[in-house]
């Protein structure tokens, strides 16, 4: 049974022309903004901290704490940047949010900008998502026309300009500092952290970078209050969450439920496994989170629950695979993706993903050798913790977890060839 307090973030998605400002206002939109503008910015930061909202882009960093890091009285401009470059394989929650309810994001942007004292915000969207860029631009124009954006927002004395920026489709530009470089007009490659963007971000000024779903939650917190938000989810991971289900499920799509909902409950909402073929393995939060199996169907999907069970919540992109799918094949496809998207800045990731693909392709083609599994794990060991950004670590997750749970399948691919070789040498 799913918590009756949800849906929150997706409640407007079924409204006719849900993306228009008329629908948004008719359904209670832009009512949090006047309340926020009457509060002191620090009160809003405190409310966000009290709500326990954590970043929905994957890492789960406490949002209010991040806002609180922005130095005040430093004389520098402050910026808000929305990471809408949703690129993690299987992740499809932010683009649907921006398509169905762009004004919840824009109202969140205005409130957050006011809280961190920023007069400029950018929404960085994947370049391929042209439909989404058009919709956001339309919504931004509507918000300007109604006085929610621009000079003297709602007569408060607060000025805010918002720009929608199209990326160019590089996965690495979802990494916040590569995104900032790209926004500044440079090639998108991760920067060394620290300094974190909170102190030195866009144009070396204090910058909050937050995910779409995180900021779209903000108007609901301002209206509902921190305690209401905490009624959903679990103690250290409160609030509602959009889980995206794809793969072998009867009804793939986005399902909103409180943090901590299990895959078993989500599958109930999605009509179960497609054609009743049993589950074999799944990703809790995109392919850079270690795989789970049928044994993990009752793991509470929040930051702590997923970590205690040996994975990560990530982007809650649940890719579901039934027992017809070969694990080494799926792992190879993900690794090909990471190799292609590696920005090449650091050696372990650039060279390591290349070799991982070589080995996996050889194994899947039936030409694996007895030492391939050890070599794969050795290369993974030399990437994990030795790469410049999270892409390197993420790339090894499907391999190490795939071998952990399904070693026999990898061995079978190696054994096949060993037998052929033994036969040839006899
Ligand atoms: P991170 O843990 O390094 O940082 C998370 C956030 O907290 C960042 O904004 C960072 O600036 C901030 N932060 C952390 N420590 C700080 C400090 N001491 N002071 C100030 N700010 C601090 O994680 P990350 O590398 O930004 O992101 C990794 C996550 O991204 C992974 O968990 C993965 O699930 C996710 N991811 C998401 C997508 C997507 O499409 N949404 C794609 C790839 C990866
Ligand atoms: Fe680039 Fe990969 Fe190094 Fe990240 S880990 S900086 S993507 S080469």
TrEMBL record:
Domain NADH-ubiquinone oxidoreductase 51kDa subunit iron-sulphur binding span(s) in chain numbering: 328-373
SUPFAM superfamilies: Nqo1 FMN-binding domain-like (SSF142019), Nqo1 middle domain-like (SSF142984), Nqo1C-terminal domain-like (SSF140490)
Superkingdom of origin organism: Bacteria
Annotated EC: 7.1.1.-
Cofactor(s) in the UniProt record: [4Fe-4S] cluster; FMN
Record keywords: 4Fe-4S, Flavoprotein, FMN, Iron, Iron-sulfur, Metal-binding, NAD, Quinone, Translocase
Entry annotated with the keyword NAD: yes
Protein name: NADH-quinone oxidoreductase subunit F
Function: NDH-1 shuttles electrons from NADH, via FMN and iron-sulfur (Fe-S) centers, to quinones in the respiratory chain.
GO terms (BP aspect): cellular respiration
Lineage, opening ranks: Bacteria, Bacillati, Actinomycetota, Actinomycetes, Pseudonocardiales
Pfam families: Complex1_51K, NADH_4Fe-4S, SLBB
Gene Ontology molecular function terms on file: 4 iron, 4 sulfur cluster binding; FMN binding; metal ion binding; NAD binding; NADH dehydrogenase (ubiquinone) activity; NADH dehydrogenase activity; quinone binding
